[in-house]
Write a structure and sequence with these properties.
heterodimer, A: mainly alpha, MetI-like fold, 12 helices, B: alpha/beta, CBS-domain, 3 domains, four-stranded antiparallel sheet, globular, disordered C terminus
Chain lengths: ~270, ~425
C-alpha cells in the first residue's frame, strides 16, 4: 500500500545477507561480556595447555611424577573425563527435556513444583555423597558414575525447559492452534524452537556442573582427571596436584565455551 | 491451483466465496462460574458479509468468536458453517478451513514471512510450487512486495506490515470464513485506518464471510456490513446494519455504547467512492520533467500526481518541487486514501496534507483521482439538502400544527437519513 516506499528504507540492507553479514549478525546478538568470554576462553585454554607442555618438557621430574603426568596417562584421563561429561549430558537432556515438556502440558502441569523440588534436593545433596551411595548400591564403575552425575545435573536443564516453554508467548501457541496446527506440531515447530535458547542455557550450566563433578568419579573407579589429582594428593607430589587441578579447570573452561557456542547457534534466526 | 480452491484473483471481484455461519442457542459456561460467559446466543451471519462483534470487555464477544473455530468448545448449542456442523470433523481439521487473524499478527518470530504464510497450505499438504506462488500472490494482495518481504523475519517488519502478513496468513488456504480477534488493536491510528481500508478493499475482491471482534465502535461502524452489539453474557443488544444501529439504537445500553456524536459518526458511513473525484495531471516515473511541467501548466494544475509502473501513486509534488531531468518516485511516503475510506478518514488525511486534499486509490492501490475539501463539503451539503427535501415532502402531508414534533419522530426512526 502507500507506505511501501517508506517500509523499504530502514531494513533494506538486510535483503541478501552474505555469510560475513550473517556472522556479524550472530555476533550482534551477544552483549560485550558474552563476546569477550567467547573469544577469551579458547585463548586461555590454548595458553594453559602450552604452558603445561613447556613445563612438562623442561621440568625435572622424579619417577612418580613422570608416571602420573605422562602424556599418555593425561590424554587417557582427559578422554575419560570428557566421556563422563558428555555421556551424562546426553542422558540429562534425554531425561530432563521430555520431563520438562510433560510438566508444562495439561494435567501433569500441577506436578511441576513437586518434580522441580525433588530435582532441587538432588542438586543440593553433596555430590560426593550421591556418588558413594550409588556405588554402594550398584557397585563402582563408569556407569554408576554416569548415573550419579546425571541425577546431579538434571535440575538446570529441567528447570530451564519448564521456564523456557512457559516463556513462549501464549498468543503464539493459540495462533498455532487457531490456524489448525495440532498440539504436537505447535510444540515441535513453535514452542521448542522458541524455548531452545533458554533450554541451552540450562544445558550449558549442566555441562559445567558435570565437568567439575566428574572429578569425583575417580573415587568409585569411574575414570577422569580426578585420578591425577588423587594420585598427587595420596603421593604428596605438589606439581601433580597443581597441574591436575589446572587441567580440570582448563577442561571446564573449554566445556563452558562449547556450551556458549551451542547456546549461540541454538537461538533461532529471527529472534 | 486446483479448480476447487481457486485463487482469489480468479474468482472475480464480487462473487461471494464466503459461507454462512449459524449459531443456534450457543452457551458457554465455565466451571465454578455462576453466570454463563455466553448465554444462549443465536445468530445468522450471512455469507460474504463482514460482521463486527462489539461490546465492552467481558461481554463474551471473544468467547463467541472462538467457539466458531472451537478454540473454545461450547457447553451447549450448535454452530454450522454452510451446511456443516463444526463438530463433524476434528478441531484441527476444522481450523485449517477457517482463517484466523489475531491482534498484532501473532507471527511466529523464528519463521520468515513466507513460512508464516505457508503454515496452513503446508498442513493441507500443498506442493512446494503451489505454496510458493500462493505466498507471493498473498503478499501482493496485502500490498507487500514479495521479492522484498518474502524472506524477512517478523521483527524486521513494522507493526502494520506484521499485521498485513497476519491477514495474508489467515487467507492462505483461501478459507470461506475468516475470524479476526481485535486485528488492528496493536497498531497506531494512522496505520489502523490504512489496514482497515485495505481489508475492505481485499474483501471487495474476495467476499469472504468475516467475523471480527473489536471494542472500538468506530471500527465496527466502518468495517461492518452488520454490527452485533453484545451486552453482559453475550446477550444481543442489537444486531443490525451500522446505519440502523446509529439511527435507532435498540435500547439504552446500545445508545450508551454507540455514544455521543453519532451524527458525526455518520461521516463514517459515507465512503469516498460516493464522491466525484478530481483528475489532475499525472506523470510516470522516468518521464521528462519539462514535458510534465508543460502538460500540467496547460491543464492549469499546480501539482502533479506521480505514478509508478503499476499505476500506484508515489508522490504528489508541486510543480516548483519538480527537479532533475526526469520524474522520480519521491522520497517521502505519500499518504493515500482507499476509495472505501470514510469521509471521516478523508477529512483526517486532508487536514495533514499541504494540498488540502488526498490521493485516492482503488483496488491494489491503483490511482483513481484526488479528493479535496470542496468536494467533501459539496457532497455533505448535497446530502443535507436531500434530507431536508425528504422532510419537506413528508411534513405537509401531516398538516399537523405540531410540525416540529412530527419531524422529530421521522428523524428518530432513521428513515429520512
Amino acid at each position: 500500500m502507500s507506505d511501501l516506499s517508506s517500509a523499504g528504507g530502514p531494513v533494506a540492507a538486510m535483503d541478501t545477507p552474505t555469510t560475513g553479514e550473517r556472522s556479524m549478525r550472530l555476533l550482534g546478538r551477544m552483549n560485550a561480556e558474552a563476546a569477550i568470554i567467547l573469544f577469551a576462553i579458547p585463548v586461555i585454554v590454548v595458553v594453559g595447555f602450552a604452558a603445561y607442555a613447556i613445563w612438562h618438557a623442561t621440568a625435572s621430574l622424579d619417577s612418580v611424577e613422570q608416571k602420573a603426568l605422562a602424556w599418555g596417562e593425561i590424554w587417557r584421563q582427559i578422554w575419560g573425563h570428557l566421556k563422563l561429561t558428555f555421556v551424562s549430558a546426553v542422558l540429562v537432556v534425554a531425561v530432563a527435556v521430555p520431563l520438562g515438556i510433560a510438566l508444562t502440558r495439561g494435567r501433569t502441569k500441577a506436578a511441576a513444583p513437586v518434580v522441580v523440588g525433588i530435582a532441587n534436593a538432588g542438586q543440593a545433596a553433596p555430590s560426593v555423597g550421591l556418588i558413594v551411595l550409588l556405588a554402594m548400591w550398584l557397585g563402582p564403575g563408569f556407569w554408576t558414575a554416569v548415573l550419579a552425575l546425571t541425577l546431579y545435573a538434571i535440575l538446570p536443564v529441567l528447570r530451564n525447559t519448564i521456564v523456557g516453554l512457559q516463556g513462549v508467548d501464549r498468543t503464539l501457541v493459540e495462533a498455532g492452534r487457531g490456524v489448525g496446527m495440532s498440539a504436537r506440531s505447535v510444540l515441535l515447530r513453535v514452542e521448542l524452537p522458541l524455548a531452545l535458547p533458554v533450554i541451552m542455557t540450562g544445558v550449558r550450566t549442566a555441562l559445567v556442573l558435570l565437568v567439575g563433578t566428574a572429578t569425583l568419579a575417580t573415587f568409585i573407579n569411574g575414570g577422569g582427571l580426578g585420578a591425577t589429582l588423587q594420585a598427587g594428593i595420596s603421593l604428596l607430589r605438589y606439581p601433580v596436584i597443581v597441574w591436575g587441578a589446572v587441567l580440570v579447570a582448563l577442561l571446564a573452561l573449554l566445556i563452558e565455551w562449547l556450551g556458549r557456542v551451542l547456546e549461540l547457534f541454538a537461538r533461532p534466526k529471527g529472534v | 491451483m486446483t479448480t476447487t480452491e481457486a485463487a482469489p484473483g480468479s474468482t472475480g471481484a464480487g462473487s461471494i466465496s464466503g459461507a454462512e455461519i449459524r449459531l443456534e442457542d450457543v452457551t458457554k459456561r465455565y466451571p465454578g462460574q455462576e453466570a454463563a460467559a455466553v448465554d444462549g446466543l443465536s445468530l445468522v451471519i450471512p455469507a460474504g458479509e463482514i460482521v463486527m462483534f462489539v461490546g465492552p470487555s467481558g461481554c463474551g464477544k471473544t468467547t463467541s468468536l472462538k467457539m466458531i473455530n472451537r478454540l473454545i468448545e461450547p457447553t451447549s448449542g450448535a454452530i454450522h458453517i454452510g451446511d456443516n456442523d463444526v463438530r463433524q470433523q476434528s478441531a484441527d481439521e476444522l481450523r485449517r478451513t477457517i482463517g484466523y487473524v489475531i491482534q498484532g499478527g501473532s507471527l511466529f518470530p523464528h519463521m520468515t514471512v513466507a513460512k508464516n504464510i505457508a503454515i496452513v497450505p503446508k498442513l493441507l499438504g500443498w506442493d512446494d510450487d503451489r505454496i510458493r506462488s500462493r505466498v507471493d500472490e498473498l503478499l501482493e494482495l496485502v500490498s507487500l512486495d514479495p521479492g522484498k518481504y518474502r524472506d524477512r523475519y517478523p521483527r524486521e517488519l513494522s507493526g502494520g506490515q506484521q499485521q498485513r502478513v497476519g491477514v495474508a496468513r489467515g487467507l492462505a488456504a483461501d478459507p470461506p470464513v475468516i475470524l479476526m480477534d481485535e486485528p488492528f488493536g496493536a497498531v497506531d491510528p494512522i496505520t489502523r485506518v490504512r489496514l482497515q481500508d485495505e481489508l475492505l478493499s481485499i474483501q471487495r475482491e474476495l467476499r469472504k464471510t468475516i467475523v471480527c471482534v473489536t471494542h472500538d465502535i468506530d471500527e465496527a461502524i466502518k468495517l461492518g456490513d452488520r454490527i452485533l452489539i453484545l451486552q453482559e453474557g453475550a446477550q444481543v443488544g442489537q444486531y443490525d446494519t451500522p446505519e440502523a444501529v446509529l439511527a435507532s439504537p435498540a435500547n439504552d445500553f446500545v445508545a450508551d455504547f454507540v455514544g455521543a456524536g453519532s451524527s458525526l459518526k455518520q461521516l463514517s458511513l459515507s465512503r469516498i467512492s460516493e464522491i466525484e473525484l478530481r483528475r489532475p495531471t499525472t506523470a510516470r516515473i522516468g518521464e521528462r520533467t519539462d514535458e510534465v511541467k508543460r502538460r500540467a501548466e496547460s491543464n492549469g494544475d499546480r501539482a502533479v500526481v506521480v505514478l509508478d509502473e503499476h499505476d500506484r501513486p508515489t508522490a504528489w509534488p508541486w510543480l516548483r518541487q519538480l527537479k532533475g531531468e526526469t520524474i522520480h518516485a519521491g522520497e517521502q511516503d505519500l499518504v493515500n486514501l482507499d476509495s472505501r475510506a470514510t469521509l471521516n478518514d478523508a477529512l483526517d488525511t486532508m487536514l495533514t496534507n499541504s494540498h488540502g486534499g488526498a490521493v485516492v486509490t482503488g483496488d491494489r492501490d491503483a490511482y483513481l483521482g484526488v479528493v479535496d475539501f470542496t468536494s467533501v463539503t459539496d457532497f455533505m451539503r448535497a446530502q443535507q439538502e436531500a434530507v431536508e427535501r425528504d422532510h419537506q415532502a413528508e411534513v405537509p402531508a401531516e398538516s399537523n400544527p405540531e410540525d416540529e414534533h412530527v419531524e422529530e419522530v421521522t428523524s428518530d426512526d432513521g428513515s429520512t437519513r
